[in-house]
C-alpha cells in the first residue's frame, strides 16, 4: 500500500466516523445533540469504541465527559490532553466539536497500527457541554478538569425545568465528585484541540490547516427595554413608548458600531416581545447582546459605546433600560511552544500554515487555567458553522490527520517551559 493510499484511507475512515456520529441526533435538519440527552448517551458508545481501537481505555467521568487514556496516562505519567465537545447547537453541523474527538483518535489508531509508541501519557476527552444549548451553561467538562468548575451551575434549568445536576445524575455522572476531577498542572504536558475554523480565512488562503494564536474573549448581556402597552389603533403615534421600536434602534446602532470597529464582532441572537400581540403596542422587549474580540481593550471600549448608545436611545423615547451581564470569558493566548510545535508538524507535512486567531470560544478557554493550550484549525467550506451545511473535505481530513500524527511523534523534542509550572 502506498503512502498516498494510506492517507486517503485515513481521510475516508475519519469522514465515515463523523457521518456515523451525526446519526446520533434529534430528528430534523442537521445535528442536534444536547448535553445528557439520549443522543449524547448514544454517541458516547460509539466514541468509546473508537477509543478502544486507538489503544485507549474509556471512562465516563463525574461531569459527563468521556475520557480515554493510554497505558502511560493510566500509570500516572505526564500526559498530553486532546479533545473537544460532543454537544451541538440546535440544527448544527457534523464537524463542530466532533472533529476534535474523532481526528485525534484516528491519528492515535494509525500510529498504533504503524507500531509507533508515544513516550508520554495521552488522554482524549469528549467534553460533555461546550455549546451551552440545553442549560445555557458552557465549558462544564473542561472547567471540571481545570479545577474551575462552579457548583452554582448545577442549579441551571433546561426548558423543561430539569436542573443540570439532576440531568447529570440521571446520565451516570456524579455532581458531588466533580471537584475531584481537577488535574494537577504538573501532571499535564498541555492541551491541544483540533477544530474546524468556523470562518473563511483558510479558504481565502487556500490552506487546509492553520495554527491558532489566541481564543477570543466573549461577553454576553441581557437587555430589558420597558415601555408602555396600549391599543395600536387608538394611541397616537407621537408620544408612544413602544419598547420594540426602541429595541430595534438599539440593535441597528449596535450593528453600526460593530461594523466600524476592527477585530470586534457581535450579535443580537435572541429577542422576546411582550405581550407579543398583533394589535398591542409592545410593552417590553428582552434581547441578548453577545460581543467578541481577542483584545480585551477593544471589547471593553466597544461595549461601553454600545451600551451608552442604548441608554441614550431609551431615554429619548421615554423607555426604561435594564442591563444585566450574563457571561464573560477573557481571551487566552495559545502557548508559543505549542504554536511552534504545530507549525513544525505542518512544515514537515508540506502544509503551509499561517497563524490566525479564533473568533469562537472553545474548551481551551477553560483548560488554559490548567495548562498551556494549542489549537489546529481545519478549513471548512464557505467558513460555515452552526449550520446543517457545515462541511470539510476528505482531502483536508487526510492532511489534518497527518499533521497531528507528526505533531504527536515529534512532541518529545519540545519542552514545556518551566515558567508555566512556577506560575
TrEMBL record:
Residues reported in the UniProt entry to bind allantoate: 220, 279, 292
InterPro entries: Amidase_Cbmase, Bact_exopeptidase_dim_dom, Peptidase_M20, Peptidase_M20_dimer
Domain of life: Bacteria
Protein name as catalogued: Peptidase M20 dimerisation domain-containing protein
Annotated residues for binding of Zn(2+) 1: 85, 96, 195
Keywords: Hydrolase, Manganese, Metal-binding, Zinc
Domain Peptidase M20 dimerisation as annotated: residue spans: 216-313
PANTHER family (alphabetical): ALLANTOATE DEIMINASE-RELATED (PTHR32494)
Lineage: Bacteria, Pseudomonadati, Pseudomonadota, Gammaproteobacteria, Oceanospirillales
Amino acid at each position: 500500500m502506498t503512502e498516498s493510499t494510506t492517507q486517503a484511507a485515513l481521510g475516508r475512515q475519519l469522514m465515515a466516523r463523523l457521518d456515523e456520529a451525526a446519526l446520533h441526533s434529534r430528528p430534523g435538519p442537521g445535528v442536534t445533540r444536547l448535553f445528557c440527552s439520549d443522543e449524547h448517551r448514544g454517541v458516547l458508545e460509539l466514541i468509546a469504541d473508537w477509543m478502544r481501537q486507538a489503544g485507549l481505555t474509556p471512562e465516563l467521568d463525574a461531569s459527563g465527559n468521556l475520557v480515554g487514556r493510554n497505558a502511560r496516562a493510566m500509570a500516572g505519567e505526564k500526559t498530553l490532553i486532546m479533545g473537544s465537545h460532543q454537544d451541538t447547537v440546535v440544527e448544527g453541523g457534523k464537524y463542530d466539536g466532533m472533529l476534535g474527538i474523532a481526528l485525534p483518535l484516528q491519528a492515535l489508531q494509525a500510529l498504533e497500527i504503524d507500531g509507533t509508541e508515544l513516550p508520554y501519557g495521552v488522554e482524549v476527552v469528549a467534553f460533555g457541554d461546550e455549546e451551552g444549548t440545553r442549560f445555557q451553561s458552557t465549558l462544564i467538562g473542561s472547567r471540571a478538569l481545570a479545577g474551575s468548575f462552579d457548583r452554582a451551575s448545577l442549579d441551571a434549568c433546561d426548558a423543561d425545568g430539569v436542573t443540570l445536576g439532576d440531568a447529570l445524575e440521571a446520565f451516570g455522572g456524579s455532581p458531588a465528585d466533580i471537584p475531584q476531577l481537577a488535574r494537577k498542572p504538573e501532571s499535564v504536558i498541555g492541551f491541544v484541540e483540533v477544530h474546524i475554523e468556523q470562518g473563511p480565512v483558510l479558504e481565502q488562503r487556500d490552506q487546509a490547516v492553520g495554527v491558532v494564536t489566541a481564543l477570543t474573549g466573549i461577553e454576553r448581556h441581557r437587555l430589558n427595554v420597558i415601555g408602555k402597552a396600549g391599543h395600536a389603533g387608538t394611541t397616537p403615534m407621537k408620544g408612544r413608548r413602544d419598547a420594540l421600536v426602541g429595541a430595534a434602534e438599539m440593535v441597528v446602532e449596535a450593528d453600526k458600531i460593530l461594523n466600524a470597529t476592527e477585530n470586534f464582532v457581535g450579535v443580537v441572537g435572541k429577542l422576546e416581545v411582550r405581550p407579543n400581540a398583533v394589535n398591542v403596542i409592545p410593552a417590553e422587549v428582552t434581547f441578548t447582546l453577545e460581543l467578541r474580540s481577542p483584545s480585551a481593550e477593544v471589547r471593553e471600549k466597544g461595549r461601553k459605546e454600545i451600551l451608552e448608545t442604548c441608554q441614550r436611545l431609551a431615554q429619548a423615547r421615554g423607555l426604561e433600560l435594564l442591563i444585566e451581564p450574563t457571561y464573560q470569558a477573557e481571551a487566552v493566548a495559545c502557548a508559543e511552544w505549542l504554536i511552534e510545535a504545530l507549525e513544525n508538524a505542518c512544515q514537515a507535512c508540506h502544509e503551509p500554515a499561517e497563524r490566525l486567531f479564533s473568533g469562537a470560544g472553545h474548551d481551551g478557554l477553560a483548560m488554559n487555567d490548567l495548562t498551556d493550550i494549542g489549537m489546529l484549525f481545519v478549513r471548512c467550506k464557505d467558513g460555515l458553522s452552526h449550520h446543517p451545511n457545515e462541511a470539510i473535505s476528505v482531502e483536508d481530513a487526510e492532511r489534518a490527520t497527518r499533521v497531528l500524527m507528526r505533531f504527536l511523534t515529534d512532541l518529545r523534542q519540545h519542552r514545556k517551559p518551566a515558567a508555566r509550572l512556577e506560575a
